[in-house]
Design goal:
This protein is α/β, with parallel strands linked by helices and 218 residues long. It has a domain at 43-185: Collagenase (Catalytic Domain), CATH 3.40.390. The chain has helices spanning 2-20, 54-72, 104-113, 167-179, 210-213; strands spanning 23-24, 29-30, 44-51, 78-84, 102-103, 120-126, 130-134, 137-142, 144-147, 152-156. The protein has a 5-stranded mixed β-sheet with strand order 4-3-6-10-9, with helices on both faces. It is globular and about 45 Å long.
Length: 218
């Protein structure tokens, strides 16, 4: 009888924890002074911004102030914290053959080696040019790249015309890396997940469209 009472109490305690939404087991969401009203299945993460130079560190610190709000306003995600890590130097072994750009895939592999455990998304930030093999080119300059669903991405400010838009490619790569979200199937020019088609223009991109969020069944 005591065992049954203990079991019922444990189940009740779990339900109360879930209903109050003050803690998410494994994802470790805990609030002290305030209560976060989240569904029990809400994805939870901490974003780690890894700058690779002084300029990137400045931009990372600036964007960290609003990145959490930007992401949470677009989807049902709880970002516990956006933390700027100490600067790391990118080794020359990550450069392309001409030593003019860093290979984005090599940066991602570099980040993977020091990947923090436990629902953290790493976003590398550099002011240097980065490249990958795409659009029929072996060494094509890009603004960002992510390993789909592997919580690992990198963004460069080198080709970003308006540095105030840095949060946009960050959010774009974040949703690739954390939510497995592909490029916008509707090719909506206002959607943050639209494929840049080699010439990304972030001016109109301010949201994630219903098609990407799964609300549009058509």
């Amino acid at each position: 009888m005591k065992k049954l009472s203990f079991l019922l109490l444990a189940v009740f305690g779990l339900l109360v924890s879930c209903n109050n939404k003050t803690e998410v087991q494994n994802n470790v969401l805990t609030t002290n002074d305030t209560t976060e009203y989240l569904d029990c299945t809400t994805p939870v993460c901490t974003i780690l911004l890894q700058p690779y130079d002084k300029t990137a560190e400045k931009y990372a610190k600036d964007v960290s102030k609003t990145l959490k709000e930007r992401i949470e306003s677009m989807d049902y995600i709880c970002v516990q914290q956006v933390k700027v890590l100490p600067i790391k130097q990118l080794p020359d072994t990550l450069l392309n053959q001409a030593k003019t750009r860093y290979r984005a895939t090599k940066i991602l592999d570099f980040q993977k080696q020091s990947h923090y455990k436990g629902h953290h998304v790493i976003i590398g930030v550099t002011s240097s040019d980065i490249s990958t093999s795409i659009h029929g080119y072996q060494d094509y300059g890009i603004q960002g790249l992510a390993y789909m669903g592997q919580e690992n991405c990198v963004v460069s400010t080198y080709r970003l015309k308006n540095k105030k838009d840095l949060w946009k490619p960050m959010v774009h790569e974040f949703f690739h890396a954390f939510m497995h979200m592909p490029h916008c199937p509707a090719d909506d020019p206002t959607c943050i997940m639209q494929d840049g088609h080699g010439k990304p223009n972030w001016t109109k991109r301010t949201k994630i469209c219903n098609k990407c969020l799964g609300y549009d069944a058509q």
